[in-house]
Amino acid sequence: MTLSACGQGHSGKASQLTTVTVGGIGSDYQTWKHIATTPQAKKLGLKLDVKEVSIGKQLNDETANGDIDVNAFQSYAYFKAYNQETHGKKVAALGTTYLEPVGIYSHKYHNVKSLPQRATVAISSNPANGARDLLLLQRAGLIKLKKGFNTFGTVRDITSNPKQLVIKAINEDSAARYLDDFDAVLISNTIALEAKMNVLKDSIYHERANASTKQNINILATTKAQKDNATYKKLVKLYHEPAIQRWIKQKFDGTKVEVNKSLSYLQQ
Predict the structure, then answer these.
(1) 250, part of any domain
(2) Domain for residue 268, yes or no?
(3) What does the pLDDT look like over 191-203, one tens digit per residue?
(4) Is position 186 within any domain?
(5) Contact, 75 vs 124, CB < 8 A?
(6) Same-domain status, 196 and 218
(7) By the 8 A CB rule, do 104 and 136 touch?
(8) What is the Cα–Cα distance from 124 to 46, expressed in whole angstroms?
């Protein structure tokens, strides 16, 4: 017989493992499918039921409604934007996992300095990720943004554009398909991996893990009511287990840069 407690996972007496439903997208789904099979998960008393969802907002919606216990896919900036924009239930952060660098890719140019005047550049149409893309263009020295630019910033906040870049928003899920149509395309690592590209090797510029990119660190999230759930917090510890990190590094060729920081680091 299986006993269940709302928001606390499902405990089977025979196995003494607590079932936690984890939702993931793309490479995060692959990662958690692997983690579910590891002895480290069993040692922590966890049985992971991993589900794949293809759309970020839908995954957050299902998590906020309690249909999925914990999700793994989003940056802290995306998480904040979701909670700001949704009129329904919110999600809460459990802990940090990694930085997955966004890269600037080009089939025509080998570095950002060689981009010509009026080069066409594609960024994400998702508001939070589009703002992240603009910040990366600023770090690359291509544009300047107004002081205080944040997750909710847009192209209207560009204060200097010396190359007169023509910046257009595209569906980020299809970003890799636009490489022949634009001079440069900003692509998230999840999408780049699906297109068999390595951000550390194939991009002409990419994010680095430092204080300037801390809002882009990925997190595990749950419902607001379960943000202090001790069982769910075990998933954060589980993700950072050395054996699991070795697998992630090998599987994704080093493109998921581990970040094991407190939530307060993101909130500073």
Answers:
(1) yes
(2) no
(3) 898 899 999 999 9
(4) yes
(5) no
(6) no
(7) yes
(8) 36
Q: CA-CA distances (angstroms) from residue 206 to 95, 168, 186?
A: 24, 19, 9
Give helix 127-139 / helix 76-85 axis angle, nearest 10°.
Answer: 140
Distance between CA 168 and CA 162 in Å, rounded?
Answer: 17
* Domain CATH code at residue 184: 3.40.190.10
CA distance between the termini of the chain: 46
C-beta of residue 106 within 8 angstroms of C-beta of residue 204: yes
- What type of residue is 214? K
Burial of 90: CB neighbours in 10 Å, binned 0-12, 13-18, 19+: middle
- Same domain for 54 and 88: yes
Q: Do residues 73 and 50 lie in contact, with contact meaning Cβ atoms separated by under 8 Å?
A: no
Residue finishing a domain among 192, 207, 222: 207
**Residues 223, 214, 52, 239, CA torsion sign:** negative
Same domain, 122 and 159: yes
Q: Which pTM does this prediction carry?
A: 0.82
- 62 and 93 belong to one structural domain: yes
Residues 88-138 pLDDT 10s: 899 999 999 999 999 999 999 999 999 999 999 999 998 888 999 999 999
Length of the chain in residues, anyone? Answer: 268
Residue 247 is classified by DSSP as H
Range of the domain at 202: 103-207
**Cα distances (angstroms) measured from residue 219 to each of 96, 98, 211, 234:** 4, 7, 16, 13
